[in-house]
Amino acid sequence: MINNTAVSTDSGSTNNIQPEFPDILSQAVYLKGYQIADFKKAGVIPLLPISRTSWLKGVKDGIYPQPVKFGRSTLWKSSDIKNLLIELEE
After folding, report:
1. Which one of 2, 4, 51, 64 has the fewest CB atoms closer than 10 angstroms to its CB?
2. What confidence tens digit (pLDDT) does each residue in 44-79 have?
């Protein structure tokens, strides 16, 4: 999911660990549900290993971030998903 990369300072110590996120989180401002959870979309590897039903139930229950509606599309902010991934890693 997230790779932690140690960043060395000028003094040579590695005290700051910066998470390394999948490329999709830095390329997109908004993500569709199938990019986050397993919506059974061919050729897409989701960020979280949970089913569509579990994802949507978690959103409804307030466990996962709330979506943003654009017309008929339901999208999630990539910054909210980044924060969720960091939270889940702890």
Report:
1. 4
2. 889 999 999 999 999 999 999 999 999 999 999 999
CA end-to-end span of the chain? 13
Q: Say which residue, 21 or 33, is predicted with more confidence.
A: 33
55 CB-contact burial (10 Å; exposed 0-12 / middle 13-18 / buried 19+): buried
The domain ranges of the chain are 28-89
Residue 85: in which H helix or E strand, if any?
helix 78-89
CA gap 75, 5 in Å, rounded? 29
The pairing of beta strand 73-77 with beta strand 16-20: unpaired
